[in-house]
Amino acid sequence: MRCTSFFALVALAAATSAATISTVDKRKNVDRPDPANLDHCPGHATGDADTCTFESESQGADAVLEHIVGSPVDNCKGGTDDIKTTIGGDTSVAQTWKYGISAGFSADGGEELPVGVSFESSDTWSNTDAKTFRQNIDVTIQPGKKAALVAKVTHKTFFGRVRLNYGDPSGEPGANDYHYVWYANGVGSVQPTDQVTYDQRIVNCDQDI
What UniProt keywords apply to this chain's record, in alphabetical order (predicted)? Predict the structure, then answer.
């Protein structure tokens, strides 16, 4: 009796071990190179992740970034008279993303993700809508100069990571509810606010404005 019980326990342990290995192998059986790459997020180049969520780990200092409003006007046609005109119009400023950065990152530097990239909101951070700014001013532009209106917009900065969630496509039919969770660290959110001041910028015709 004891011998029979012993072999029964061994068989049960072996079966349990095999089931565990099978489950682990099944969950590992996912052909997804570089799963923490943000290209896997929905709407991005690969787009095979279920969701991508930005999780803020800290809020940085506010940053004032400059945006050209409307189109520049130049007096670069070889004339000798001043031009009195109006510059400005409107511009839309959306939130942007930086990656490969660390806490205290510069809002106007670093690598930027493509325009239009977005992630899900989380308990520590929320998406914000684009801000539209409208303004016009009268200026006098001397020969050999060009002018533009500049909106100096205050932005909020957040440092954190993006959580990538994947369904398990290797599970049994109807049981794809197991998720792999990966993290892309060193991601920054730069969000425009409604706080703005305007200024004119006048430079030589051969300079960037």
Answer: Signal
Distances (CA, A) of 161 to 104, 147, 198: 14, 40, 33
- Nearest 5°: phi and psi at 82? -65, 155
Whole-structure pTM value: 0.77
Domain-by-domain residue ranges, the chain?
37-204
Please tell me the distance from the alpha carbon of residue 172 to that of residue 194, in angstroms, as a whole number: 50
Alpha-carbon gap, residue 36 to 164, rounded angstroms: 7
Cβ neighbors of 38 (< 8 A, separation 6 or more) are 44, 52, 99, 113, 117, 162, 164, 184, 187
Tokens 């008279």, located at residue: 81
Q: Using one digit for the tens of pLDDT, what is the confidence trace for 52-79?
A: 999 999 999 999 999 999 999 999 999 9
